[in-house]
Amino acid sequence: MTSSKTYSFFIDQHGCAKNQVDGEILIGHLEKAGHKRVCDAALADIIIINSCGFIQSAKEESLESFYDAKKAYPDKKVVMAGCLSERYADLFEESIPEMDGIFGNGKLSDIVDFVEKTMEDCRPKMKAPQSGVCGGDRPFINNFAGSAYVKITEGCSNHCAFCAIPIIRGELRSRKISDIIDEIKILLGRGVYEINLIGQDLAAYGTGATDTEEEGKNLRGDSPLKVLLEKICEIEGNFVVRLLYIHPDHFPMDILPLMQKDSKLLHYFDIPFQSGDDQIIKAMNRNGTAQGYALMVEKIRQALGDVVLRTTFLTGFPGEKKNNFLNTQNFLKTIRPNWSGTFAYSREDDTPAYNMKKQVSFRKAQKRANILHEIQEEITFEKLNEFIGQKVSVLIEEVIPNEDEGIAIGRAWFQAPDVDGSVVLRYENDDPKEASLVKEGNVVFANILGTAGVDLDARLIVE
Question: How does pLDDT run across 229-282, given as a tens digit for each residue?
Fold first, then answer.
């Protein structure tokens, strides 16, 4: 339904891929109602800060963006949306009167009513209960061409001691298989090649399902994630699927044979281990062990061979001593992931870890994070060198204007968007055939020539 009054809006996007999808859905709802998205905040009637509330640094960044926008555009409406406002709506309402409105993330379709009330000077606070998985048209995909995220779950029920996600987004809920398939088909019809499945824990897909009882039944006993992947693989077309974020405590091993036989499923896994010490793993409210996790990685590699592994480590968790950290170092050296991110522990309100004894200083936590980062740099360098001389497919993200030499930036199958390195692709820009292949969103073949930090140099292959 088109609104009687229309407004221009600008979305300042923060946070993870899941929040990015939320931002895209907000745009869809607003545009459907007749409002206009602009790419310059100076041209907007209302500025929406789609915030992140996960860790302290992200919270500070979102708040700084709000104050910067309010200072730069004092006559415009500036509102806070997303995870941070979901988490601290009552506090913001009382303590930050400059906020022209506060919008949570429980029911994204309410954004139209919210914007209209804001523009009427009502200063609304809209925070709906967490239920289901929000969806909607996404006319604007905030990725490079050829790639998109598809959310299959919302919330999380793992309740890791350090994590505020269940507080912000509630218990885990799953989308209907039919809805996911429909969305993927729409994206493929728009030229998307890479489908990145996201959720707080893909392994828990099927929990809190919104499917009907009949649709959710699985007489074979397969994991719901495997059933979903089978349905995705039945879709016709040239595309690939990447799985992002699988909790290590219940990795569904039954997806491996399917990945073995269907090339649409990339052999790429994002498994956030967080620690390699049994004492800390248990304190984090996780059920696994370092040995068990290492064995799981070994089994995955044995099953698939050319596996690329990304993980995450959290240093300075309460109670982490030198020997605990040494165990994590050894674990990292044992599993040798292609990529890993390391973060110093952030003490988050209302999480179980907040009141734990033996808090580690941020300085010490950051020092440990730097050590893990240095270890990973060596491992990544060695892993990337293994690709030298190989022929790989590259999804082109950006063509760089250059008179002397054709240069484009893209990603190979072993590089996830935003978090891993890139492929610097070189080609003859005065060769019509080569130049015609190198377009944003196209997939081309390239020969890997060498490494440059976390990136790879490559030469276009014309077949």
Answer: 999 999 999 999 999 999 999 999 999 999 999 999 999 999 999 999 999 999
Question: How many secondary structure helices (H) and strands (E) does the chain include?
Answer: 15, 19
> Whole-structure pTM over 0.70, yes or no?
yes
Q: Is 354 exposed, middle or buried (0-12, 13-18, 19+ CB in 10 A)?
A: middle
Q: Kindly give, in sequence order, each residue whose CB lies less than 8 Å from that of residue 206, ignoring residues fewer than 6 positions away.
A: 174, 216, 223, 224, 225, 227
Residue 254 has what DSSP assignment? Answer: T
Three-state secondary structure call for residue 23: helix
Between CA 331 and CA 313 the distance in angstroms is: 11
Residues 82 and 38: their CA atoms lie apart, in Å, by: 19
| pLDDT tens, residue by residue, 305-345 | 899 999 999 999 999 999 999 999 999 999 999 999 999 99
Q: Which of these, 227, 305, 230, 231, lies nearest to 268 by C-alpha position?
A: 305
User: Considering only CA atoms, which of 197, 337, 186, 330 is closest in space to residue 255?
Assistant: 197
Q: Is 220 helix (H, G, I), strand (E, B) or coil?
A: coil
